[in-house]
TrEMBL record:
Classification via CDD domains: GTB_UDP-GlcNAc_2-Epimerase
UniProt KW keywords: Isomerase
Known EC number: 5.1.3.14
Protein name: UDP-N-acetylglucosamine 2-epimerase (non-hydrolyzing)
Keyword Protease applies: no
Encoding gene (name): wecB
Keyword Isomerase on entry: yes
Residue ranges annotated for the UDP-N-acetylglucosamine 2-epimerase domain, each copy included: 22-364
């Protein structure tokens, strides 16, 4: 029986790997081992509960105020010990977190093949986003097995001399998760139900990237101007746990009665809020893939994106963090119905909801068949 180890530990990884872990666990020919680094503690626990997934190893590495250097050191020690004990046939990592890089590197040191889910995303600027871009590039150098969401991602890998035989375009597993959760009955708190029922156009705001901290004031001023200029617009802002983001948000927009600052939402609730908003302003990566699946336009408050397929398809618009540009582009979508339809009615370029099954099928066909480096 094939033994496949999945290593992840953040909320976004949990959302996108949950369909893969479920598919692995349901296959009678696979022994699935899930190592939870708990790089995010409470936020990931919510996701695992939502998808009814239990870890085989919980490394409990969440530590308040820890540096990336400290996290990396602790990860390499603990993940290596688990790999040494379990001797998996393949280690799966996802995306671009510190857990992703260390999981891949620890497997490499023990000559265990690595599969990279969500491979080939690039901004080609190693400091944007930081440290995610360099993590994904490093993992591509280590991995043998590359699951690319789109053909653009595959082309990125081919340009970096990754063998085409070891790249499989599968779509993004986040769409698998999105469609599963969106079909469930909404369980939003009454407070949120009441906000969404006002009849106003709701903008969902999410901002958390490290590289955007210095630009937050500009974004907040833009949000304030948008609400002031439109009586029929309101904003919901689930504030990240980062104390710097929280303090600045309270100072800049905390007193506006049409801007609702709320605690971070559980994933299921967040999906049902997304289903009911008019547009989204974000610096998140995953939302750029999820929102188009629900027909919601996205303004990306970053200077770069590793998801250019959404920009090219027309579901995303890259607006940076300039106050004036954010106001201009938001007003365009609020007032111009044709502009709104051009973004909201485009087919999602990031997948159709069958990515996890494609990944597992490909693993079963190819592990031990010569494509992967043997242990």
């Amino acid at each position: 029986m094939m033994k496949i180890m999945s290593v992840f530990g953040t909320r976004p990884e949990g959302i996108k790997m949950a369909p893969v872990v479920q598919a692995l666990e349901q296959d009678p020919d696979i022994e699935s081992i899930f190592v939870n680094t708990a790089q995010h503690r409470d936020m990931l626990d919510q996701v695992l509960h939502l998808f009814d997934i239990t870890s085989d190893y919980d490394l409990n590495l969440m530590k308040e105020g820890q540096s990336l250097e400290d996290l990396t050191n602790r990860l390499i020690d603990k993940v290596s010990k688990v790999i040494e004990k379990e001797e998996p046939d393949l280690v799966l990592v996802h995306g671009d977190t510190t857990t992703t890089f260390v999981g891949a590197y620890a497997a490499y040191l023990q000559k265990v093949p690595v599969g990279h889910v969500e491979a080939g995303l690039r901004t080609h600027n190693i400091y944007s986003p930081f440290p995610e871009e360099i993590n994904r590039q490093l993992v591509s150098k280590i991995a043998t097995y590359h699951f690319a969401p789109t053909n653009r991602n595959k082309e990125n890998l081919l340009r970096e001399n990754v063998s085409g035989d070891n790249i499989q375009v599968v779509g993004n597993t986040v769409i698998d998760a999105l469609l599963e959760i969106s079909r469930r009955t909404s369980n939003l708190p009454n407070e949120l139900e009441n906000i969404l029922a006002t009849g106003k156009k709701t903008i969902l705001l999410t901002m958390h990237r490290r590289e955007n901290l210095e630009a937050l004031q500009s974004v907040y001023r833009a949000i304030h101007r948008i609400v002031a200029a439109n009586d029929d617009v309101q904003v919901i802002f689930p504030i990240h746990k980062n104390p710097v983001i929280r303090e600045m948000a309270l100072d800049e927009i905390g007193g506006n009665t049409d801007i609702y600052l709320i605690e971070p939402l559980e994933y299921e609730q967040f999906i049902h809020v997304m289903k009911n908003v008019y547009l989204i302003i974000t610096d998140s990566g995953g939302i750029q893939e999820e929102a188009p699946g629900l027909g919601i336009p996205v303004l990306v408050a970053r200077d770069t994106t590793e998801r250019p397929e959404g920009v090219e398809a027309g579901t995303l618009r890259l607006v940076g963090t300039s106050e004036d540009i954010i106001v201009l582009e938001t007003q365009r979508l609020l007032s111009n119905e044709d502009s709104y339809k051009m973004m909201s009615e485009v087919q999602n370029p990031f997948g159709q909801g069958d990515s996890a099954n494609k990944i597992v099928a490909y693993i079963k066909r190819n592990v031990g068949q010569g494509l992967l480096v043997s242990k």
